[in-house]
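Record passed on underneath.
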Amino acid sequence: MNPLAPLLEQHVKNHPELELQDAIKFLYQSCMGPGHLVLDPKAVLERLEAEWANVKGDADAPLTEPLGNGLCRLSLAACKGQGLEPSTLAALFLHTAQTVTPDRQGLEEGLKLLYHLPFPREDVDKALEDYRKAGMPAVHHSARYRRAYAPAYRVVEQDLARLLPLLSAIDRHRRTHTQTLVALDGPCATGKTTLGGFLSRLYQCPLFHMDDFYLPPERKTAQRLAEPGGNVDAERFFTEVLSPLSRGETVRYRPYRCQSGTLGPELVVPPTPLAVVEGVYSLRPDLESYYHVKCFLEVPWSTRRARLLNRNGAEGLERFEKLWIPLEDAYFHAFPIRECCDVVLQG
């Protein structure tokens, strides 16, 4: 069975005023994505802001409607109600448009599902004949659909929708403050580095890695490693990064290179209104109060183990299990890191 069948059936059930062109639009968005709408970032944002102004925010509105193929319709009302900025939603939309590969063959197969909907067969035949003659373009919602449901959404990757609590928290703070510092903490292999990189690209902001501040070998004494969170050079991180960031000053630091056990060349980061710090130990009690948005990432151990094995091989996985993970566990057992966070994201 075509995996789009139950999604389309549910959509029709939820929208009894739907017409054939609305069903075609659903299938088109699922298979082709939103790329056809993109002109340039400025035009995308201007169009969204015009629509945004006429939408009433509703934090309790359903956030998404699944389209299949890893895509969804993200509700403008829900986004606005939760505090997301239209510029952030525009960036999510553009990211989706630039990464989704259109599947015209999938659309051809999906259109066959129209015959299973409650429309006369001759109407479906005529609609498909006209649609194919037109070149199978993107279509608008019918006037009847717009009157009944006032659709206001953007098509984005389904996985991006799960980030809305974090993105909204960031945007709410940015709206009323000149500086926002974000921390991403959690066990190894939960996706902190990947998420940090995405946030850095999305907001065009600097990203700092706690891995750049691990202790050099000569400082890894038994006494130091016995301290929860002692595996990281929190003192140097605070002095070189977090303190100047919090004062709106230029950051200068040399990242630690684990393979050589030495410090790399100095990096210089100008003052910035938004910055992200990712990595375990970023929310140590002596650092936690300097952040404005705190996020904890958690993923089942089976998934983390598979990631570590794929990333480091069997020997590397064994090293993590015997050395690094026990140190992390001691840190998370000693301090309420998860509980101090504004947002918890499940992998």
